[in-house]
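Q: My labmate handed me this sequence with no annotations at all. I'd like to see what the chain might look like in three dimensions before we decide whether it's worth expressing. Could you predict it?
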Amino acid sequence: MPTISYYEAVNDALERLEDLGYERGVGVDLANHGPMGAEAVAVLGHGDEVARWIGRYRRALEHHEPPAARFALDPADEASWRPALGDFGRAGDWERLFARELATAPWRDALARWWPRLLPGLFAGLTHGLIRTAHAVRGLSVAGETPTRLQLDELARGLAYWAARYRALPGSPALRGPRAVPEAVAALPRVPLDGPRGPSVALGRIDALDRLPGYAESLEWLAPHPASRLLSDMTLQFADVYLGHPEVFPVPLVHGLTAPAAARLVLPHLPQELYEPTLARLWQVQSTFLLAFTTDRRDEESGAWRAEADDLPPLDELGARAVEHGDEHVIKFTEGCLREYALRPDPRYPAAAYAAQRRIPRLDAGGGVAGVSAGAAGAAD
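A: Here is what I predict for the chain of 381 residues:
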């Protein structure tokens, strides 16, 4: 049993990571995963390992400096804040805006006010605006009536990263179709490669989404269902997608599961009228991942993954193995898979977590680079 509680571990982590900027890497712009990874390590029951993991993480890549605020944004004036959406040069201004919002109103009120404003840009930082926000929300929900300044600042930074890397995908998704998630994924056309696979192919496809076959139609394919069921359908389907595509660079597709798993952490703190538009945007993001990073269905919805998972370790070892592995994507993906498995015990969840632990290089081996930059694609690793 850890001697450090979740609450203590998270706040210690936020203090140790407070000096880091939003992104990292030399010549690339990759999302800062420190707060997300540390919080997930604590959730996995390894609070005693958080400080050591942070040391490993900080040594892996140099982080950018925290952004400075320059010009005030007025949250009450849409003409002030809306033009700044997606302007990473305004990240410091966004952070100051959200810090001010959280200092003057309960955090759930500020979250509910800004969620629908940020939701169309859910693809921000390859969904890391949403994911960082969700990890912060989980910490605040555990803190109850005694959130620390560090925890409120982390929520401000999650929202600020979302706003500064805001990227709206083409089209307006809605849950008004006839299909369940597995049927929609199966029906989505995949575009074969004309040349070698690489980051430029994914970037080009993201930039040309509205010209790819099936994309526009897919936005209204999903049928409305209760949020919990749809989230489980989404995460399970992307566990299956991850297992079925060992040929794809192993990092980007994990976000097809971690994004809806992150949304599950936040929805209980939002008004119910925001559930359906959130689910619709999540499906839009998932269809984008499929069209950008896969070129066929390969081994989706097959039993091929079972041979790969023959030596799957016991569930209670998966979390420990993820922490020992060290890569932040492996940690967050494993935590998400185990959490989703507890709600819907399908073996594809632990199998996908184990596959990621083998496909993604260990943190000490310099793993975790997605191959696309936030500046180029609005999508960091």
